[in-house]
Amino acid sequence: MSALALFIPLIIFFLFVICLLGFLTAKSATTFDWKRGASMIRVVYYYLILFMTLMMTIGGSVAAFMAIADIVSPPSYYHSYIEYQEMKIANKTKYNDQGEAISTPEINEEELREEYNLVVAQDKERNKERAWNTLIKGFGWIVIPLPIFIFYQRKIRNNQE
């Protein structure tokens, strides 16, 4: 999926370049005013930069929103208490060479419940830390391309006046 998301803008860009070259080399381009053509290429370049920086800013905004959602409501721990209990019992059980259980451990239910709650709390904290990291990265995808977008948007606006 990510490879496809990477190739779609590249395909659009190359189609755009091919159309632009086709326009420049067409029969009607024999009377082409080169000063006007250079101006048009510059404007197309500005719009291409605007498009790319806008997509980067939108992607950063989506990532930041998802990170905020993970901070507010972190994903839950993926094991239920029963699964955790069975896993602990299986880990502490001793087996012989034939795979038969030799001894089953005695597990204190209260200690196991406290240990499970501690694991769940640690998992939520770890998820929140990851979400904060993702939030900072998402803001980077907003803050870095946004000034470039504003700069070129003003350039286009000044050229049109």
What tags apply to this protein structure?
78% helix, mainly alpha, single chain, two-stranded antiparallel ribbon, 161 residues
Word description of this protein:
By secondary structure, the protein is mainly alpha-helical. It has one domain. It has helices at residues 2-25, 34-72, 81-92, 109-143, 145-160; strands spanning 94-95, 101-103. It has a two-stranded antiparallel sheet. Helix 2 runs antiparallel to helix 4 and helix 2 runs antiparallel to helix 5 (145-160). The longest helix is centred in the N-terminal third of the chain and has 39 residues, at 34-72. The chain is elongated, with a radius of gyration of 29 Å. It starts with a helix and ends with a helix. The mean pLDDT is 80.
Overall geometry: elongated
Subunit arrangement of the protein: single chain
Strand order of the largest sheet: 1-2
| Unreliable residue runs | none
**Major sheet details:** 2 strands, antiparallel
